[in-house]
Design goal:
The structure is a homodimer. The first copy, chain A, has helices at residues 3-9, 16-27, 34-37, 45-57, and strands at 32-33, 61-65, 71-75, 81-86, 92-96, 98-100, 107-116. Helix content of chain A is 30%, strand content 30%. At the A-B interface, β2, β6 and β7 of A face β2, β6 and β7 of B.
Chain lengths: 122, 122
Amino acid sequence: MKVEKLLENKSIKLTKARKALLEIFLYANKPLSYEDIKDDLSMDKATFYRNITIFEEENLISSFESNNKKRYFEILEKSNHAHFICNTCNDIECIKGQLALGLDGYDIQNVTITGVCKQCHI
Amino acid sequence: MKVEKLLENKSIKLTKARKALLEIFLYANKPLSYEDIKDDLSMDKATFYRNITIFEEENLISSFESNNKKRYFEILEKSNHAHFICNTCNDIECIKGQLALGLDGYDIQNVTITGVCKQCHI
DNA sequence: CTCTATGCAAAAACTTTGCAGGGAT
DNA sequence: ATCCCTGCAAAGTTTTTGCATAGAG
């Protein structure tokens, strides 16, 4: 879906910064932190974080924190998927699959698994 | 298991601060952040974090980050259990259960689920 | 006596806020 | 003319580090 439509649906005013930001996340294939994209951003970090906050409030974007004190963001998708963060190489993988946990009545927004990935695991 | 034994097994020198710290986590029934216990601590925050680092390196304690920029710590148990963090009330629940994800070959250290808990979910 | 642990204060890393200027309607 | 978005700089929050002192063996 186009960025313009996404913002319009949420009644968020379209600006250059918001369009650029949302497009980055829309076309990204993995969660990104501010640091990951700061060199490609044409906006100040204040603008980045302020708009991220708006996007999160409007459920356009979800976030989670990794072991390295950073926050990662990605487009909120319908499909349940978990993130695996490797404590050794710090890589983040998206894991498709189902959680078999007794969480009826809970609204699950994010699943983050940490550990050591297959590559790093000897 | 006694704190003294735990430290001895890992060849960590027993000190007053380490004993106090490990006992707090040993008898806690949920993960705790520095802020949660700072008023009860008789040590400086530098000592807290330095010893936590040692405990983590020796696999006595595991940690994860929540949405509120804090790190939570708990005794590393053998039993797989996940944490559910409510974005509304910020409460942390320990969830017993199994993950049915294709993660063979991965070493899973922590599972953190965020969302809205049953109580807060209307 | 030597070696490590601790407290204090300062620094570091990431994120948020205050404020004044700029753009869009 | 008004409203809100933005950039810049400063402040805030949590965690880490440097250094001198204290403590254990």
